[in-house]
Amino acid sequence: MALLKMKFTQQRRVRLAQGLWLLSWLAVMCGAFIFCLGVYLKTELLRRAEVMDNTEIHVVPNILMMVGLASIGTNWVASRVCQDSLDASRFPRWKVLLLAWFAVAALLCCLLIAVVVLSYALQGRLEESLKVGLRNGIRFYKDTDVPGRCFQKETIDHLQMEFRCCGNNNFKDWFEVQWVSNRYLDFTSKDVKDRIRSNVDGRFLLDGVPFSCCNPASPRPCLQYHLTDSRAHYNYEYQSEELNLYSRGCRQALIDYYMDLMNSTGPGVLSVILIQMSVLLSLRYLQTAVEGAMALENPEGESEGYLLEKDVKQTFEDCKAKVLDMLKLAQVDAAAAEVSPGAADAEKTVDNTTEKAASPTPAS
Amino acid sequence: MVVMKMKFPFQKRVKLAQGLWLLSWCATVAGATTFTLGCVLKTELRRRAEVMDNADVHIVPNTLMIVGLASLGINYFASKICQDALDAGRFPRWKNFLKPYFAASCFFTVLMLLAVIMSYAMKGSLESSLKIGLRNGIRFYKDTDTPGRCFQKQNIDRLQMEFQCCGNNDFRDWFEVQWISNRYLDFSSKEVKDRIKSNVDGRYLLDGVPFSCCNPSSPRPCIQYQLTNNSAHYNYDYQTEELNIYLRGCREALVNYYMGLMNTIGAGVLSIFILQGSVLVSLRFLQTAMEAVAGKENTEIETEGYLLEKSVKDTVMEYLNPVLKFLLLTNQVEEGATTSGATPAAT
C-alpha cells in the first residue's frame, strides 16, 4: 500500500517537470543565499575574533557555508534530472543517482534545522568566550609595547566606541586593572606611590576609565577620572550620574548584536528548508510517476506517483532486514572468505538497501 | 553644407536600428543609475547638514536626479522610435515629434555634463560652507541646554570620532572657545576665576580638547587637558606628540570625503554621458537615413544619413531665430510705443 499516492496524467507530469525545473533553480538561488549568509556571519565573527576566547560559535557559519555550496550542486542536479525526465531514453541513467540524491537532500534539510537550533543553543558558549576574551583585552590594554598585544588598546577602544559599551560587565571593570602603562607613570610622584602601595600586587589602580567609555550624548564634557569621588567635580553625583559614560557592558552589547544577527537569519533559513523539502518531494513524485509511465504499454497514459512503495512501518522493517542481512553476509564473507557469491548478493542488497534507505527519509 | 554625411545601405540601417534599440535600453538603466547616484549624494550631504552653513552644493545631486529622470524618458522614446523606424507605415507619425525631442535631449545631455563640471567647481563653495558650519558647531558645543542647539555637542563628537579629525583647521580651534558649559564650572574655585579674568570676554578658555579628539591608536591613555604644558604629564612633549589626538582638521576631512564621493560619481556620470550622446547621435543618423526612404517604392535602397542639414552655425541660428525674433519683436513694439509716446509730448 503506497504512501500518499497521486494520479498523474501526461499533462500533469509535464507540468510537474516544468514546475520542478523552475523550483530547483529557485532552490539554487536559495543555496547561494545561504552560502552568502554563512560568509557574512563568519566575517562578522572574525572581525571581533580578538575579544573571543574560542571559536566554537564558528560552527554555525561553517555549516551554513557547506550547506549552501552543497545545495547549489544538489539542486542543479535536480534541474538536470527533471530536464531529462520527460525523455524516456535519457531518464534511466539517473536511476541510481537519484537514490543518493534523496539521501543528500534529506541530510541538507537536517543540517539546516540543526543550524537554527545551534544558533540558539550556542548562546551560552558565546557568552563564555566573550567573557574570557574581554577580560584579557582589558587586562592587556596597557601592553602597547608587547608584541602580539600591541593592538589590544586600539581594538578595545574601537569596540567600546562602536558598540557604545564600557568594560566587561560594566565600567567598574576598569577600576580593577591597571590600564595605564608603567611607561607613562611618574614613580617619583606621591599619588602614584600611594596608589601602588594600596594593593598587594603593586598595580596602579584608579577609579577612572579610558576615553572610549565616554558617552557623546552627555550634556557635560566627559568625566573620566575620580569617578567615585563626588567632590572631585563640580555639580557631580556619582550615584545618580547616568549619561556620562556608557552604562552597558561590552559582553552584553556583543551578545545582543550577534543574537540579533542570527535571529534575523532564522526566517530566511526556515523558508529555504521549506523550498528544499518541496523540491525533494516533487522530485520523488516525478520519479515514481515517470517510472510508472515508462512501465506502461502506452507511455503517455496515466500513471501513479507515490512517496513510498509500501507504508512507513513496512518500509522501515524492510530496510532493517536488508541492513541486518548485509551485516550477516559481511560476517560470513570475513569468516569464510567466499568473495564471489557474497559479492553478488551484497551488490543486490546494497542496491535495494540504498533505495529503501533513501525512501523512508522524506516521510520521516 | 551637411555635417558628417554617411552612406547607409539597407542592411546597415537594420543593424543600426537593432543596435540602437539595445543601446537605448542600456541607456535607460544608466539613467536610473544616474538618478540613484544623485539620491546617494543628496543623502550623504543631508547627513552632515548641521555642519554646513548653506545648501549651495546641493545643486549637484539635484541636477543629477533631474537628468536621471529625464534620461529615462528620453531613452524610452528612443527605443520606441527605433522599433518603428524600419516600418515605413509607422515611422512618419514620429515626424513632428522628433525636432523638439532632439532639442530637449541635447539640453538634458549637456546638463549632465554640466553636473560633472559643477561637482569639481563647487569645491570652494563647499569648503566655505563647512568652515562656517564647523565654526558655529564648535562655538555652540557647550549649549546643551539651549533649544535648537542641544544636539550640537553630540553631532560634533560623533563627527570627530567618525572622520578622525579634531576642530575646524586643527585642534587649536578648541583653545579659542569656551566648550565647557557654565553649569559645570565652580565659580568659587581660584583656577576658574583666573581663567575667566585672563581674557576680555570673560570666557573659560583652556588648552584642552573634548574626548572625541582622542586617537585610539595612541599607545598611551589620552591626554586631553593641559596639552601645551609639558610638565603637567610624565614623559610628554607637546611639540613632538603626534598620536595622542587627531591632528587633521574636520573641514579638511569632510572636504576630502565629499570630493572623493563626487569624483567617483563624476566618473560614472561621464561614462553615462558618453553613452547617452551616442544614443542621440545614432538616433539622428537613423532618422535622417529613414526619412530619405520615405515615399520611395523600393524601401531597400541605399540612403544617406547626416547629423545636421546645414552647418553648425546655420543650425544654431535656425533654432535661435524664432526665440530672438520673439524677444526683438516685443522690444520693437516697446520702442515704437515710447517713440509715439515721446512725440506727442514733444509736440
Automatic annotation (TrEMBL), chain A:
The chain crosses the membrane at residues 20-40, 60-78, 98-122. One of its GO terms (biological process) is visual perception. It is a multi-pass membrane protein. InterPro entries: Peripherin/rom-1, Peripherin/rom-1_CS, Peripherin_LEL, Tetraspanin/Peripherin, Tetraspanin_EC2_sf. Residues 338-364 are annotated as: Disordered. Belongs to the PRPH2/ROM1 family. This is Retinal outer segment membrane protein 1b. It comes from Acanthochromis polyacanthus (spiny chromis).
From TrEMBL, chain B:
Keywords: Membrane, Transmembrane, Transmembrane helix. It is found in: Membrane. The keyword Cell cycle does not apply. GO terms for cellular component: plasma membrane. Pfam families: Tetraspanin. It is a multi-pass membrane protein. PANTHER family: PERIPHERIN-2, TETRASPANIN. Belongs to the PRPH2/ROM1 family. This is Retinal outer segment membrane protein 1a. It comes from Acanthochromis polyacanthus (spiny chromis).
